């Protein structure tokens, strides 16, 4: 086969040949500007520039044979072998001309090139595939170029296969991908380990949450959620998002979540918790900020008291499907400093559902985030069922898949409407403590009658009356009006709470044998499952204790 005639059909050779024949109209090469016309003999070796060989004078076999890349030339619909260069023969062994590629060049079939070569031969358009790997060999980037074969009957064409060995590059890329996968898996493991392994389930609420890390191309973020039981039936709900990606964001998230749990134990109002978090976030890492929404549910009031630091609004779906948005009382993100947060309220009556979420659920490129929140409102309005079912439906409705480009955290809180026997397990009773010391015997009589009507065992009734008496006596001695005794039972515990107008919190102390006072709180702490105190928003305090109810007989 005449390779010189083939070279005239190689892409670009005609343009290069035309450029040589019109040298006068093309600027001289950079190295020629320093030479004077007529003094070409001064060039090293005394050779004239015109002595450079023309392309037509070069042997294509010689050129292709010296290339380090693998070259194969085939012709006809069966891709019969016309030529393989030395590099190809070294890599895969010599090939006999004339045999079909499917037989003589099995490596091309392993690379999946035969269908591609058919397309190139029929369409006349070069095609390139990158980093194709042979099962027991290296990786190659291959270009298939159509070639005309003059002199063959019917104008039979061919294909020039040019394969560059990119094994080193492919292995380096694979090592990099493996390193990125390991780093991502580490970050995801850290992130998941810092989230609650099992959500606390308060007596009055049903709660579920879900966390989905971003797709494989996205670094793990710092989304988190938490549920914290505060005592006396109250529950803190937390959702947050640390700006940034990777292990560092997850580590900051873990520190903030731990701090939230510690501050929650102080039973502070939501805005005071965020004030403390704001200062801590700046100390942890001044270069990173975080958003957070902190809400407290009180079953006696059927509402959420909340504060937000730059976070998206809480959504509440009523039993009739109406969705309300908690938009007020939103301050800047944590870590910015210089802002006094405030608390707001939103109703959470029986039968309603609250949804707390991070921006990964609603934020999309090229779209205002309010549009995403509007879509979420529509999805929440139609999302019914158990909390986990609602979580899953919201994820699907907002188009969040495994390839989503951001982390997503969703916390769904339901306040179920109870009827029938289930409703009989939840009761409230309250007594205003009016007058002086005579309020104490009235409180004992009230507690005794209520607990007996709730059919508690005699031993639990006696302990409950004793605890109520001690808390009322403590309030009468150290507190100020107005005073109230509240009894509450759930399906799991008995809660006794006394409120008064003084904001000095009691503390447990060791009383000396000769002391006539100071034993009330110690007695309560000894007989009850737990106890605590907190300041109330309007001034004053609440002191409470809990008794775990016996398990019903099987």
Structure report:
With about 550 residues, the chain is of the alpha+beta class. About 35% of the residues lie in helices and about 25% in strands. It has 16 helices and 21 strands. The strands form four sheets. Strands 7, 8, 9, 10, 13 and 14 form a six-stranded mixed sheet that branches. It has a five-stranded antiparallel sheet with strand order 2-1-5-4-3. A hairpin with an 8-residue loop joins strand 4 and strand 5. Helix 15 packs antiparallel against helix 16. It is elongated. The N and C termini lie far apart (about 95 Å).
Tags for this entry?
21 strands, 25% strand, elongated, disordered N terminus, five-stranded antiparallel sheet, alpha+beta, 554 residues, six-stranded mixed sheet, 16 helices
Average pLDDT, all residues: 84
- Overall geometry: elongated
Helix content: 25-40%
CA-atom Rg in angstroms: 40 Å
Query: In angstroms, what separates the terminal alpha carbons?
Result: 94 Å
Strand composition percent: 25-35%
Low-confidence stretches: 1-41
Number of helices: 16
The number of distinct β-strands equals: 21
Structural class: alpha+beta
Tell me the quaternary state.
single chain
Note the main sheet: 6 strands, mixed
């Amino acid at each position: 086969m005449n390779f010189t005639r083939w070279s005239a059909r190689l892409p670009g050779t005609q343009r290069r040949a035309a450029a040589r024949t019109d040298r006068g109209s093309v600027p001289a090469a950079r190295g020629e500007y320093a030479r004077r016309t007529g003094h070409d003999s001064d060039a090293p070796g005394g050779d004239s520039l015109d002595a450079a060989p023309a392309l037509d004078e070069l042997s294509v076999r010689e050129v292709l044979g010296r290339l380090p890349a693998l070259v194969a030339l085939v012709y006809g619909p069966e891709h019969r072998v016309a030529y393989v260069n030395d590099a190809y023969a070294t890599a895969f062994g010599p090939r006999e001309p004339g045999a079909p590629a499917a037989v003589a060049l099995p490596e091309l079939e392993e690379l999946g090139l035969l269908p591609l070569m058919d397309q190139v031969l029929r369409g006349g358009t070069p095609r390139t595939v990158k980093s194709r790997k042979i099962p027991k060999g290296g990786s190659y980037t291959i270009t298939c170029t159509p070639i005309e074969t003059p002199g063959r009957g019917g104008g039979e064409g061919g294909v020039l296969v040019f394969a560059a060995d990119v094994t080193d590059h492919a292995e380096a890329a694979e090592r990099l991908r493996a390193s990125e996968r390991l780093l991502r898996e580490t970050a995801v493991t850290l992130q998941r380990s810092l989230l609650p392994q099992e959500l606390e389930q308060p007596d009055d609420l049903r709660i579920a949450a879900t966390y989905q890390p971003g797709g494989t191309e996205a670094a793990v973020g710092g989304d988190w959620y938490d549920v914290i039981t505060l005592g006396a039936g109250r529950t803190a709900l937390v959702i947050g998002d640390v700006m940034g990606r990777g292990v560092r964001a997850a580590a900051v998230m873990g520190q903030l979540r731990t701090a939230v749990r510690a501050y929650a134990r102080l039973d502070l109002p939501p805005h005071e918790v965020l004030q403390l978090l704001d200062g801590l976030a700046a100390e942890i890492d001044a270069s990173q900020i975080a958003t957070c929404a902190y809400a407290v549910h009180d079953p006696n009031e059927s509402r959420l008291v909340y504060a937000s630091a730059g976070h998206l609004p809480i959504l509440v779906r009523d039993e009739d499907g109406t969705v309300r948005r908690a938009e007020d009382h939103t301050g800047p993100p944590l870590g910015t400093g210089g802002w006094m947060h405030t608390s707001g309220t939103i109703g959470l009556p029986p039968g309603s559902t609250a949804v707390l979420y991070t921006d990964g659920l609603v934020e999309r490129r090229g779209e205002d985030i309010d549009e995403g929140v509007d879509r979420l409102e529509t999805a929440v309005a139609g999302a019914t069922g158990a909390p986990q079912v609602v979580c899953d439906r919201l994820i699907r409705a907002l188009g969040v898949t495994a390839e989503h480009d951001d982390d997503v955290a969703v916390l769904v809180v339901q306040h179920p409407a109870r009827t029938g026997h289930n409703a009989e397990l939840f009761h409230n009773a309250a007594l205003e403590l009016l007058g002086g010391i005579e309020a104490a015997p009235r409180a004992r009589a009230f507690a005794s009658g209520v607990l007996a009507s709730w059919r508690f065992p005699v031993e639990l009734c006696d302990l409950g009356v004793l605890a109520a008496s001690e808390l009322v006596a403590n309030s009468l001695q150290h507190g100020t009006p107005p005073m109230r005794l509240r009894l509450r039972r759930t399906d799991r515990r008995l809660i006794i709470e006394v409120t008064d107008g003084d904001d000095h919190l009691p503390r447990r102390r060791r009383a000396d044998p000769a002391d006539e006072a100071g034993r009330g709180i110690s007695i309560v702490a000894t007989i009850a499952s737990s106890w605590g105190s907190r300041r109330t928003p309007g001034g004053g305090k609440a002191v409470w204790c809990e008794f775990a109810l016996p398990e019903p007989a099987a």
